Each structure stands twice: as structure tokens, then as C-alpha cells.
Amino acid sequence: MKIRSLILLIFVPLALTAIEQEGSYPIIGTLSPIHEAKIGSQVSGRVKTIHVRMGDRIKKGDVLVELDPLFLEIELKRQTALFELSKACYDEALAEYQRLQPLWEKEPPSISKKSYEDAQIRCKQRKAQCDQASADLENTKQRLLETRIIAPFDGVIVKRNVDFGESVTTMPAVTVAEIIDDTKLLFEFSLPQDLLEKVTVQTARVTLEIPGLNTYEGTLSVLSPQLEKDTRTFLCQVIVDNLDGKIRPGIFVKGTIYWNN
After folding, report:
1. Final residue of a domain: which of 125, 145, 165?
2. ∠ CA 232-238-241 to the nearest 5 degrees?
3. Which of 128, 145, 162 is the last residue before a domain boundary?
4. What is the biggest distance separating any 2 CA atoms in the chain, rounded to whole angstroms?
5. Per-residue pLDDT tens over the stretch 95-139
6. What CATH number is associated with residue 131?
7. Which of 94, 99, 126, 203 gets the most CB atoms within 10 Å of its CB?
């Protein structure tokens, strides 16, 4: 009698570790300041004092240039006198109206309707004149403050366009100085539409080869929500920290963007 032995093979599935393949694409672009501004003036005048020159580091609120305030100071005195006069006329008209109002409202009225209405109209007119004089006075005060041209943010002066005694106008607008914030730089580059589904802000990383410095590694900050019609590419942005000021804005940079397939 033959005895057959049964061998049972049991296959146990083993956990497989997915190997993510990384894709890449060469990129080129220029590093630009994330903030830059051409500073003008809200008022016209002659340059009296200059506090900065090209290359100076400035803080927000620092005075860059001062215009001669003489004519506006004269205008401020005139507007102050007009306001005080219109205020006195309004106070007088209001006092007269308040005196006549109870006389008109009692039964029977002890003054004519015309006298009451004339006082009421006069009070409203003087009030309007007083409000206009007040607004003109505040406008002159603000214009006087605007003779001190200040920095809108921290940064560095890259160009100064005026000198002592020169006239600054608002129409046409004259650029007094140009400022950039070079502590953070913006690197923009374009990618073809084939990569639209592969590259995301969350998964992509970027390396930049900055001349004279070490390779910079960072992540995407912004992906454009639409493609350029002419090139069928989409814009990407990377923010590069430059707190030590070693990177000069405007430099041409090559790099590579990586993503997980």
C-alpha cells in the first residue's frame, strides 16, 4: 500500500515598499526684489534737503527727501484764518437760530415764519462754509506733511533722481528715489504644460546655482493658476531668503526643479 504525502504550500504576501522615482527639469530665470518702488511726491516743490544716497540702508518711515515748505506754510496760515472766521460766523448763526427756535415753537409763535426760516437757512449755510473751511485746512496740513518724502518699507536705495534745488512735480510725476527690499528675492520661471499635473507646491523642490555662492535649495511658493496662451507654459515662483545681502538682485540663475512621479 502506497502512502502519498500531501505538501501544502502557503504563500504569504510580503509588504512591498514603493520606490518613488523622481523627475526633474532644468530652469532658468532672474532673481528680482520681492518689493520695489519708485518713490514720488504727493506735492510739488523745490528740493530743500536730501537725507539719502545710492546704497543707503533705510527703515520704513525714514525721511528720504524734504521739499521747501515755505509756500505751504503761508497757505496754512491763510486757511487757518479762514476757518476761524467761518467758525465764528457759524457760531453766531447757530446762536441766533437757537434763540429763535423756542419762540417759533411755542403757541402761538411770537416771531414770523419768515424770520425763523431765514435764521434756519443762514445757520445751514454758515455750517456748510465752516465744514468746507475745515476740510481745506486739513488738506493744507496734509500737503505740508507730504513735503517730507518717507520710505514705504525697509530696504536699500538703488537710485536717487533729484538733487538740491531741483523742482519736483506731481504732474508729470517725478521719481525722487528708487527702493528695493533685497532681504527676500523672487525667482520666477516657466514650465511646459506637460508638467502641470506633476509639479505641485507641496511636492516639488528647487535647487538654484547662484554664482559665487552655494547651491540654494527651496520649495515652490506659487504656481500660476493659468497657462500663457502664446507659450503654453505656466509661471512658478520661489522666494529666496537673502538676509545676509550676499545675493545681488538682477542676477541670472540656473537651476533644477524636482518632483515625485
Report:
1. 145
2. 165
3. 145
4. 143
5. 999 999 999 988 888 899 999 999 999 999 999 999 999 999 999
6. 1.10.287
7. 126
What residue type is assigned to position 120 of the chain? Q
Q: How many domains does the chain have?
A: 2
Residue type, 54: M
Nearest to 254 by CA among 43, 27, 55: 27
Q: Are residues 234 and 139 in the same domain?
A: no
Give the residue numbers spanning the domain of 33. 22-68+149-260
Identify whether the C-beta of residue 176 lies closer than 8 Å to the C-beta of residue 162: yes
Read off the DSSP letter of residue 10.
Answer: -
* CATH number reported for the structural domain that contains residue 230 in this entry: 2.40.50.100
**The three three-digit cell numbers of residue 153, written as one number:** 518699507
User: Does 132 share its domain with 225?
Assistant: no
Average pLDDT, the chain: 88
- Burial call 218-248: b when 16+ CB within 10 Å, e when fewer: eebeeeeeebeeeeebbebbbebebeeeebe
Q: Are 141 and 186 members of one domain? A: no
Residue 200 CA to residue 28 CA, distance in Å, equals 18
Residue given cell 530665470 in the structure block: 29
Q: Do 91 and 104 fall within a single domain?
A: yes
d(CA 14, CA 16): 6
Phi, psi of 241, deg, nearest 5: -70, 140
Share of the chain above pLDDT 90, in %: 66
- Whether residues 74 and 64 share a domain: the answer is no
What pLDDT sits at residue 245?
Answer: 82
CA-atom Rg of the chain in angstroms: 36
CA atoms of 68 and 222, how far apart (whole Å): 45
